[in-house]
Structure formats: structure tokens, C-alpha cells
């Protein structure tokens, strides 16, 4: 399908980049990205992907918008308070770019639905705020052979890595298993990292550049310090290793959070 | 001996184990930190016996669970 005049104008600053061109823009328009968690990470990721013209964006989140979310979750506005986050995010995306098809699931990802969910998409963005969900998304994507971007944040620090099927390393190669509930604090802060996740998705879809596969990027906002730490596959990884003990997704106990979402 | 911790050169006494380094560096929640030495992960059980050598490059990878 050819671009309309309006699309040519809307995406002209993408198309003008020789690495993207109309071919890459077409790939973006045909791509399907799933964003799990429409909060601090998912909000900027969803907005940049919608703006760039990713054809289908899936949103999964169980919560409603709270006033305390608005300091960082820029996809939601003051009048959205009380509304399901997936609905509020859908409305913002549609206002930003009506070309984008938005699919919403107001609920949690669990062992029972993770595989059927990720299988429908080309790339998955983990924008969740707890370890059981992060491990579940990792295991689901490894088992379903789907690329995904992991990110985590705490106070002024963040981390990011990208998993590519059959290449690894996966999130479990680095962190093995979830810490016990409340052993490690979880906190919220966002913006930069979600935008970086969107960039990883775009590079994967267009097929350009080097992904954060095999690297954990760490970000310290206070020092404005970015570091890329090389990580390798664990030969005995329980999910992506040659003899996996995890062959189906598992639900872990959800850790309680130290702050209201 | 000198070690590179997160890319920064620092001096330590010889014979330091990974476990002891976590203590000396006052790493928070040492039971839940992934440590890599020269790009190789060191399992939690191996940390007390893993003696560091001059020039080793050490990274602490912390659990970051936030995102919403």
C-alpha cells in the first residue's frame, strides 16, 4: 500500500533519514508492538512509537489513572484520573496519530495469557514495575521466541537490555530468579528509559543499528552517566539454556510495592 | 592490587574475595546483586571463594524493579 500525501508529510522526517527511508517507514507501519504496563516506562514508549507510525500498538495494564501518576506518565492527563490506563493511553495515541491501531487488554499478564499475547506481536516492551512480571515476560518471550526490551528503574537510576530470540542473553541469564518479595526496593521514575525502549523497537523493526543485545545499559540521571555493561549467556540458564528447566511460563508471588502506583 | 569497579580504578588489599569486596564497597542487598568479573557472572555460592586478581574488571548489576 502506498503512502497517502498526509502520511508522506507526517513521516517525512523519518523517510528523509537514509537508514529509514520509505522502506523502513513501511516496516514501521506494518509492525505490531506490545507494551506491557502503560506507566512510567510504557507511556513515553507508546507515545514515541505511535508518533513514529508503528501500525499496531497493544497495551496491557490493569490499573486506573491516579493523580500521583501524572508527574511522569505523560500519556495520561488530569482529566483522565480514574479512567482505565489502557483507555486513557488509547485516546492519547489516537489524538497523536489516528493511523495507529490500538489493541487494549485491561488486566494483568499471567502465566495463562502471556504466550497467546506475545505471539500476536513483533516486539514486546516490558514497562512493568515488579519482578514477577519481568520474569514472566522474559520467560514468555524466550519460549515464544519473541524479541523484547527489558527495562527497570529505581529512583534516579535505570537499566535496559534487549533480548533477541536464540541469541540471548535473556533477563534470567543476568538475574537468575526474582528476589523474595520486599528484599529489594521498587520505586518509580521514568521518561528517559521508556524513550530508549521505543528506539530499540524502532531499530529492530527497521533493521538498523546495533541493539542492546548482550549489553545491559545502565543510566544514572543524577550523574548523567550511561554505561554499557557486556553480558553473556549463562550456559545453565533455566529458560534460554540448552537444557531448560522452565518450559512453560510461571507466576511468582507479586512483591508488594513501597509506594502506591 | 588494583581493580576496576564499574570502570573506575581503585586499590584494594591482595587476596580479596568477591564476597569481601561486596562488603568493603558497601553494596546494598549483597544477596541480590549479580556480579560479573571480566564479563563472567560469578554465582552467589562461588563468591566467598572467588579471589580477585590485579586488573580484574568488576561490575555490580542491581535488580531494578520499577517501571510504572
Can you walk me through this structure?
The complex is a heterodimer of chains A (261) and B (68). Chain A has one domain (31-230): Rossmann fold (3-Layer(aba) Sandwich), CATH 3.40.50.720. Chain A is built from nine helices and eight strands. Chain A has helices at residues 5-10, 12-15, 21-30, 42-52, 85-96, 114-118, 131-144, 171-175, 192-206; strands at 32-36, 56-60, 101-105, 123-126, 148-154, 157-163, 215-220, 225-230. In chain A, strands 3-2-1-4-5-6-7-8 form an eight-stranded mixed β-sheet, with helices on both faces. The model of chain A is unreliable at 256-261 (pLDDT under 50). Chain B is mainly β and 68 residues long. In chain B, β3 and β4 (40-42) form a beta hairpin. Chain B has a single domain (2-62), classed as Beta-grasp domain (Ubiquitin-like (UB roll), Roll), CATH 3.10.20. Chain B has one helix spanning 18-24, and strands spanning 2-5, 8-11, 33-37, 40-42, 57-62. The relative contact order of chain B is 0.31.
Q: What is the CA-atom radius of gyration of chain A, in angstroms?
A: 18 Å
Please give the count of helices of chain A. 9
Instruction: Summarize the helix and strand pattern of chain A as letters.
Output: HHHEHEHEHEHEEHHEE
Uncertain ranges of chain B: none
How far apart lie the N and C ends of chain A?
42 Å
**Helical fraction of chain A:** 25-40%
Fraction of residues of chain B in helices? 10-25%
Produce the secondary structure layout.
The complex is a heterodimer of chains A (261) and B (68).
Chain A: H1 5-10, H2 12-15, H3 21-30, E1 32-36, H4 42-52, E2 56-60, H5 85-96, E3 101-105, H6 114-118, E4 123-126, H7 131-144, E5 148-154, E6 157-163, H8 171-175, H9 192-206, E7 215-220, E8 225-230
Chain B: E1 2-5, E2 8-11, H1 18-24, E3 33-37, E4 40-42, E5 57-62
Parallel strand pairs in B: 1-5
Antiparallel strand pairs in B: 1-2, 3-4, 3-5
